[in-house]
Design goal:
Blueprint (H helix, E strand, L loop, with lengths): L10 H34 L4 H25 L5 H19 L8 H33 L5 H29 L4 H22 L24 H9 E4 L2 E4 L1 H8 L1 H14 L4 H9 L4 H23 L7 H12 L1 H8 L3 H29 L5 H27 L4 H22 L1
Antiparallel strand pairs: 1-2
Helix pairs in contact: 1-4, 1-5, 1-6, 1-10, 1-11, 2-4, 2-15, 3-4, 3-6, 5-6, 5-11, 8-9, 9-15, 9-16, 11-14, 12-14, 12-16, 13-14, 13-16
């Protein structure tokens, strides 16, 4: 199979693009159903704040433990086949969630949700690594921007429709059986998404390429050597640290990112608890909030993509980070669904700003010749922030009421925004 067959105008390339669109379209169904309502389901079952936090913190721990060995595992393996098989393993978990609402004991259902989520995170980590490498191989560089934009738009549309339909089902079917229906709905969407991943075709059955990010993820036993190679140089027969690189990575810039990720995730496990137990929102209203959030996120992304942003990514980053603190503050003042829906509209717009600012500012600050090491450190910082924040929020909830925690969370996010403005 020749590389010429993968020119953007060839039938093979167009078929790949279609499968990538179908992949994300079907995945939008599970995102708007199972993924959007899993924490709400656990909350309605009576899960504690710590148990809700585990739904986020658990996968972060798995990512930290398995990213390096999975990187080594991928070497000399066909990347499309590995992506397909890992997606099947991960997304079977969505199917396994469907019978849980029919168990008699609510505590058993909560335990099942947490266990399945943790098990899914193992192949999910492999899928995340493999899919990124596969996408870079299957999509020509000049087409990645347009393809990614279209995938994001398709995801927003299908996720919004799925969330609205799921909310209507949950409002009309007795608890908890409605969740069994939407979990099955999501599981079917997840498996159909995997089917289209398996239909992709590569210029060659890709073993990890020299410039692929996966190359820089060795097995745990070689982790020390990996970091020595990335952060040290040899001069006059002696090994010395790349002090400038270390200062850049471990200095104020990356510390500000760590603080931001940590404070970002402090209230995330608490939002379902707050919406259900304090605001007493129905599943239909929660689904409407999800839909409004997604619509505004898509709108913001489309508008920003039309601007020539140039070097203004730090401005986007700091603006988005500071505005990010307003979402929990709006919820603090909410007494019914009105301010919740306003917060959803506002939050979607802010996330569209923040997403563009975060990743592009990170790319601006990372040296071209040291980017793999820089991104490895960022991945560690991201997952560490998710882990700490997801556990810190439930811990605070044991001593502070949920409404007050919304105010505290807004303050913490504002502090993180100021630090990003100073050091980001």
């Amino acid at each position: 199979m020749s590389l010429a067959q993968f020119h953007p105008t060839t039938p093979t390339a167009r078929a790949n693009f279609r499968h990538l669109y179908y992949d994300i379209g079907w995945f939008g169904l599970v995102s708007g159903s199972t993924m959007a309502f899993l924490a709400v389901y656990a909350t309605r079952l009576g899960a504690s704040s710590f148990q809700i936090g585990l739904l986020t913190a658990g996968p972060a721990v798995v990512n930290l433990l398995f990213s390096l060995p999975f990187g080594r595992f991928l070497e000399n393996r066909p990347i499309i086949g590995t992506s397909y098989r890992s997606s099947i393993l991960q997304r079977m978990g969505f199917v396994m969630l469907a019978p849980l609402p029919f168990l008699e004991n609510y505590a058993d259902q909560v335990f099942g949700v947490i266990l399945i989520t943790l098990l899914m995170a193992v192949p999910g980590t492999l899928l995340a690594i493999a899919f990124n490498a596969m996408f870079a191989d299957v999509v020509p560089s000049e087409m990645r921007g347009p393809i990614t934009s279209k995938r994001n738009a398709i995801l927003a549309v299908t996720m919004t429709l799925s969330a609205v339909i799921s909310g209507q089902i949950l409002d009309r079917v007795d608890f908890p059986y409605g969740y069994g229906i939407i979990f099955l709905f999501g599981g079917v969407g997840a498996l159909l998404s995997s089917y289209h991943i398996g239909r992709l075709r590569s210029p060659k059955e890709l073993s990890v390429q020299v410039n692929s990010p996966v190359r820089y993820l060795p097995r745990i036993s070689n982790a020390g050597r990996f970091f020595r190679q990335q952060f040290t140089i040899k001069a006059q027969g002696k090994t010395t640290f790349k002090r400038g690189l270390l200062r850049s990575m471990l200095g104020p810039f990356m510390v500000s990112y760590l603080i931001f990720y940590t404070f970002q995730y402090v209230p995330l496990p608490l939002f379902p608890l707050y919406n259900v137990r304090v605001l007493d929102l129905s599943d239909g209203i929660i689904s409407l909030g999800t839909a409004l959030f997604n619509v505004m996120m898509m709108f913001g992304s489309i508008v920003l993509s039309r601007w020539a942003l140039g070097s203004r990514y730090k401005l986007l980053l700091t603006t988005g980070a500071l505005l990010y603190s307003v979402y929990p503050l709006i919820l603090f003042f909410a007494r019914d669904e009105t301010l919740f829906l306003i917060a959803s509209l506002f939050g979607g717009l802010v996330i569209s700003i923040l997403n563009i600012g975060l990743i592009n500012r990170l790319m601006e600050r990372s040296p071209d010749d040291e980017r793999p090491a820089f991104m490895a450190v960022h991945n560690l910082v991201l997952n560490l922030g998710i882990l700490v924040g997801s556990l810190l929020g439930p811990w605070l909830a044991d001593s502070i009421d949920l409404r007050t925690l919304m105010l505290v969370s807004g303050g913490l996010r504002a502090v993180a925004g100021v630090l990003l403005m100073r050091w980001g």
